[in-house]
Amino acid sequence: MRIALACVVALSLTGCSGGINDLRQYVAQVQASKVAYEEPEPVSIEVTAVPYQVDHLRSPFRLERAHSPDPPSQKSCPQPDTVRNKGALETFALDSFELKGVMTEAEQRWALVRAVDGRVHRLRKGDYLGLYHGRVAEIGINQLTVTEWIPDARGCWTQRDTSIAMAR
């Protein structure tokens, strides 16, 4: 076994010793040759300066107030009562209410309305509900009419009647 291993090592080492003369000759030839590549001279491009003046524009790093038109006065267009305290039913959208029934008690008509929270509330004419300052205008036999104040682009408010019908 030792003899076979010694033969393999001897053959390997003899294969590495020859053939290096060609490599030495090629390296000497490459080092002796002159470089054929010459770097071209850079071409100068003439650039014209353009003045950039931004003194009259706003700074993007400073917060400026938006210019809004003057709000209309209370007398120039109708406004809802925004000073009053809002009720619990004014936190729900008007389309989330369901009219469950109408009852009359001593010449007073009441509407039974179920809100999103699952509770049934008793409303009479003049009570507030909905997000847009809605007020009960009329209680019919099968429907409830609510007058809402809808804001417009000018800062004024427009009244809109919405009916909630009883589900069958």
From TrEMBL:
Origin superkingdom: Bacteria
InterPro entries reported in the protein's UniProt record: PilP
Protein name as it appears in the record: Type IV pilus assembly protein PilP
Organism: Ferrimonas marina
Taxonomic placement: Bacteria, Pseudomonadati, Pseudomonadota, Gammaproteobacteria, Alteromonadales
